[in-house]
Amino acid sequence: MKQIHYEMINIFPKLAWLAVVDKKQSFITVYHGRYVECRENWFIEGIWDGPFDVGDFHETDLVFGTGMKVLDERIVFVSSSSTADRLYYSFDQNRLLVSNSLPCLVSFTDITMDPLLDYAGFFKSIENNCQDYQKELPVRSGCEKILNIMGENLVYLSGKQSVEAKPQKKHFSDFASLNVFMANVFLKFRNNWECPSRRNKLSTFSTISTGYDSAMVSCLAVKTGCNHLFTCVSSSEMGPKFIRSKRKIVDDGSDIARYISKAISIIKFDQHDFKKDLANEIYLFPGMPNTRLTNFLPMINYLDRLNKPSILFTGIGGDYAWGSDPNDSYYDYGAISLSEIRLHAGFIHCCFLSWLKKYRFLLLEISNSEEMKRWSIGGLYNRPIPRRILEESGVPREAFGYVKKGGWKFWLIPNRPYDPRLRKEYYRYLTKNNLCTRQEIFFFPIASVVFWTFMIMKALLWRLKGSKSKFEYIKPPFSSISHSTFPWAVQAIADQYRENEVFRRNTFGSRRRLPADAP
């Protein structure tokens, strides 16, 4: 069995790791951030529905986070069960490199991102099918390939790699069994995160709003010991305040939280507060270039400043899990937007509904059953399952789930950083790679104003008309560079890591091999 040599890299994100498997050596070298849980034959940055000490996260379909398990000569790299995180891997000479962070992987190789490629297709390939996504990440011509997996496991044996599906189980068949299943799963999660042998104790947080998804997840989390809730007090629904009712403007979930439990602390922020501290903004772009979660930065910065690892429960994935609209996208871009920045801030992203959505048709069958009619309110925003769970937990019917809102911030057109320093660096990247001229950059702010003014007018006309048809977005100006923030940010962060001494083959951090009796 291959042994693991661990080396902590201080400059790495707190939960990032990179494993190097050399065919010619009898050990695996793992470079990692300071909050990764390392053991003799496995490591993990995550939680799952099993005992922590056993380390059997490779045998379940309910794991949030990533890790590796060595089983004799078989090495299993485990990705998150949701589409919220990816594992990236590549071959460099005789070595297999696997990482949960794309910038970390790029920093250990000669691979460079191609600024001329449009990465939109890569991110959109999973919209309709969780299995049929683009496995190869486009990079500059002549470089080694970078491959990725989501919701699957990568197995390496005898010099060959294969991708295996996670074990599939039948967890529920009706509302009663679903309700019991979810309650039991969150109890198993708690037993896992509270395990005394964890070297890094985990704090727990959840998000809550006046909608269905985060409120239901928070209800489950609070009942199993989570007592810190974030709420963004204002919604991001399109349009100025004068065309929106107060119900559509306010998204403060504090009242709902107090119905669930009196013994919780509520951390409030507004959708515009992100501009106060943009230090971590660059880490949003390697997850998703057209990120809409910039306004979540106050929450992320809060978790970053804890100086200890944490778990964040979110309601991401609920639109597809409960929705009946055939035009709904399987892929929730909000989830993947957090994939890199969560490693930097040190939190495990538990988006339970992003996993649950694979049972969408069974959930719709349960929602439309006779026993659920009492919790069906009709209309386009109707989700009987989370409504029943919340109402039976003491939340009044009128307190939530009547108006569909948005918890994200509209991005700039074309997509670019808010931070003035980062914006200058990004503009230099655009001009250096002949993606646009300085004269075109001058018109970026004007393009944003014109585009969103037109969108607001069109939304207002659509609303006055009373049509129930889907609102179609027009193509934004400068759309050819809308995904350029992705290769720019990945390359910029990777270059920062390369400047560190460890990449010059000098000792950095603490290289160690865990003894056989390590907990």
Task: Characterise this structure.
The chain has 519 residues and is an alpha+beta fold. The chain is 29% helix and 18% strand. It has 17 helices and 19 strands. The strands form 3 sheets. An 8-stranded mixed sheet has the order 10-11-8-9-2-3-1-19. Strands 4-5-6-7-12-13 form a 6-stranded antiparallel sheet. A 5-stranded parallel sheet has the order 16-15-14-17-18, with helices on both faces. Helix 4 crosses helix 13. The protein is globular.
SSE-based structural type:
alpha+beta
Question: Could you give the distance between the termini?
Answer: 19 Å
Outline the biggest β-sheet.
8 strands, mixed
Major sheet: arrangement of strands: 10-11-8-9-2-3-1-19
Q: Give the helix proportion (percent range).
A: 25-40%
Secondary structure blueprint with pairings:
Layout: E1 3-8, E2 17-22, E3 27-32, E4 37-38, E5 42-48, E6 63-71, E7 74-78, E8 87-92, E9 95-99, H1 102-107, H2 120-124, E10 136-137, E11 146-149, E12 152-157, E13 160-165, H3 175-193, E14 203-207, H4 213-223, E15 228-232, H5 246-249, H6 254-260, E16 265-269, H7 297-304, E17 310-313, H8 318-322, H9 333-337, H10 341-345, E18 347-350, H11 352-356, H12 360-367, H13 384-391, H14 420-432, H15 438-442, H16 444-465, H17 485-498, E19 511-512
Parallel strand pairs: 1-3, 14-15, 14-17, 15-16, 17-18
Antiparallel strand pairs: 1-19, 2-3, 2-9, 4-5, 5-6, 6-7, 7-12, 8-9, 8-11, 10-11, 12-13
Helix pairs in contact: 4-13
Quick synopsis:
With 519 residues, this protein is of the alpha+beta class.
Q: Which key terms come to mind for this protein?
A:
single chain, 18% strand, 519 residues, alpha+beta, six-stranded antiparallel β-sheet, eight-stranded mixed β-sheet
